[in-house]
Amino acid sequence: MSDALPVQPPAYSLLDPHLDDEESKGRIRRSNEELILAAAERAFSRSGFKGTTMAQIADQAQLPKANLHYYFGNKENLYLHVLDRILHDWLSPLDAITPEADPKQALASYIQQKMRLTYERPEASRLFANELLQGANVIGGLLQTELKELVQTKAAVVDGWIAAGKVAPLDSTHLFFSIWSLTQSYADFDIQIRAVLGRSGQSQSDRQRAERHVLTLIFRTCGLA
Fold first, then answer.
1. Per-residue pLDDT tens digits for 62-106
2. Which residues have a Cβ under 8 Å from the Cβ of 46 and sit 6 or more positions away?
3. Interatomic CA distance for residues 1 and 19, integer angstroms
4. Cys staple from 161: which of 8, 157, 165, 167, with CB 3.0 to 4.6 Å?
5. 56: which residues sit within 8 A by CB, 6+ positions away?
6. pTM listed for this prediction
7. Which distant-in-sequence residues (6+ apart) come within 8 Å of 92 by Cβ?
8. Could you give the CA distance from residue 142 to residue 127 in angstroms, rounded to a whole number?
9. CB 45 within 8 A of CB 188
């Protein structure tokens, strides 16, 4: 009887001859869609909806313009997908805020993730802010339904913490407005902040300083300092 170990199958790879063709196409599609959405986020942020063309986005994504129309149809639909992606990525960190969570840890996790997104994708924050300044014509309905319901749910969690004596009395809804303002300012007003700090760009130490400041303000407001 041989003591040889059984031969392990090769690691999953697009080159695997047994890979299902439809699965391969699905992976390629997801990769292309991500490239397009990232390029569109940058382009719309810099030039606005009217000033951006599908050709410009295609050039930034380094894909044929036909791919953009194939995956998203037209510029309006692509713009909607970009905004929906931004809102989803911003709201996902709210999952940390649950009734059973430690308030300080949950709020810290949410703020830290928001700050990370602010610095890693500043164009997303600016694009979203510009959409709001223009009247939120594209995502107004989403703000009044899904966003409103989510904030009400998370505000109720904070109210529960307050009732349990874990957090100081405060307006739980406006707490989220304050967190959004504090975190997104570092993207929306980056030029102003760098001018005051005397920087050409914000360093890692600048980012850590900003994060500590935001955490300190929120913790003190919540009686968690």
1. 999 999 999 999 999 999 999 989 988 988 999 999 999 999 999
2. 52, 123
3. 33
4. 167
5. 43, 47
6. 0.81
7. none
8. 16
9. no
Q: Give the chain as a 3 state SS string.
A: CCCCCCCCCCCCCCCCCCCCHHHHHHHHHHHHHHHHHHHHHHHHHHHHHHHCCHHHHHHHHCCCHHHHHHHHCCHHHHHHHHHHHHHHHHHHHHHHCCCCCCHHHHHHHHHHHHHHHHHHCHHHHHHHHHHHHCCCCCCHHHHHHHHHHHHHHHHHHHHHHHHCCCCCCCCHHHHHHHHHHHHHHHHHCHHHHHHHHCCCCCCHHHHHHHHHHHHHHHHHHCCCC
Please state, as a whole number, how many other Cβ atoms lie within 10 Å of the Cβ of residue 104: 17
